[in-house]
Give the backbone structure.
Amino acid sequence: MATINSNFLKLKAGYLFPEIGRRVKAYTESAPDKAARIIRCGIGDVTEPLPSAVRDAMHKAVDEQGDRATFKGYGPEQGYEFLRQAIVDNQFQGLGISADEVFISDGSKCDTGNILDIFGKGNTIAITDPVYPVYVDTNVMAGNTGDADDNGAYAGLLYMPCTAVNNFVADVPSEKADLIYLCFPNNPTGAVATREQLTAWVAYAKANKAIILFDAAYEAFIQDADIPRSIYEIEGAKDCAIEFRSFSKNGGFTGVRCAYTIIPKSVNAFTEDGTAVPLHQLWSRRHSTKFNGASYPVQAGAAAVFSEEGKQQVATLIEGYMGNAKLLREACIALGLQVFGGENAPYVWVGCPEGVTSWGMFDKMLQEAQVVITPGSGFGSAGEGYFRISAFNSRENVLEVCERLKNLIK
Ligand code: MLT
C-alpha cells in the first residue's frame, strides 16, 4: 500500500491565488457581461513586456543553441559563472559575497520552499502574520507543524504579529526560534525594515544560533536610500542569513523564471550533537541532485538585466509600477482609508472600510467595481480587516481602479 505524506492533509484551504482565481471565474460565469471590465490587482504578476535588452540577449542565446559550435547542453547546476559574477558585481558590491555563494534557480517561490530540504526536524520556525503563504504551507508539507486551529494558525509555528502598532515590522520575539522568515520589502504589507531593526534581528539570530531566511524579492522597489537592500549590509549577517532574490518583479521574469539564493560559506547550522556544518555545501549538493540549472537563454536574459541598457529599462519599469503605487495610495488616503506600504514596495496595504471583512471587501470590489484585490486575511489572521492592492498593472488600468474605488467608497 502506497501511503501519502499526510502533512498535506493539514493544509487548510487551496493556495491563496488559485482560490482567488476560482472565485473570479465563478463570478465571470455568473455575470458574463462584466467579464471584460475586470481589472486584476490581486496576484503580484507583472504586466509590462520584458525589457528589449533581455529579449535581445535571449534571442542571441537561442541562436547559439541552434549552432553546433556554440550549442550548450546541461549547464552548471548552480548557474553559469557569467550570471553569478554579474549578480555579485551589480547587487552585492562591497558586501563580501563571492560568485560561488550565488545559486541560480527558476524562482524564489521554489527556493524559499525547497530550502527546508537542508534543515532538520524539530526546529522552531518563526513566521510573521500576515505572511507570504509559501513559507507556512511548505513548513506544513515538511511536517514542521501540527494541525491548524479555527483561525488557520498551525500548532508549532511561532507567529510574530505585524500590525499597525509595530508598523508591520515584527519585533524580535522573547522566545527562541531556530529559523526565521523575514521578507523586506514586505509581501503583503509593503513595509520595510530599518537598519536598526535588521541589526536587532541579526543579533537575535547569532545569539540563538538561528538562521534568517531573508526574502528580498522586492529589493528593486526600495526608494528610500537609508533602507538596507540586502541583509548582508548588516554586520554579522554573513554568519546567520540566507538571502533570496528574484528577476520576476524587477526584470519582468514571472513568466520566464529566474531567481537566485545567496548562501555565504560562513553560514552554519548544526548536527544533533552540535557539530557546525556549512549550509552552502548542503544546498550545493541539493542543487546538484535535484536541479539541472535554469536554462541558458533564461540566464543570458537575466544577465542582460545588468547591462547598461538593461539597467535603464528596468529602472523605467520600476518607476512605472511605483508611480502606480503612489496613485493607488493617494486614492485610498483621499477616501479616508488607512493606508500602508506602496512607498518602497509595489503593494499597497489598505484597511477595509468600517465593518467590512477582508473577504467581504474582496467580494465588494469584484462584484460592484470589477476589481480583483487580495484579501488581507488570506495572508494570515492578523491580515483580517485589510486588503492588498498590487501596483503591477498599466497606468491606464490603475487610473481606472482609482476612479472605481472613488465611486465604490463614497
Ligand atoms: C504575490 O502576489 O504575493 C506574489 O505574486 C506571489 C509570488 O511572487 O509568488
Observations:
- The longest strand covers residues 241-246.
- The radius of gyration is 21 Å.
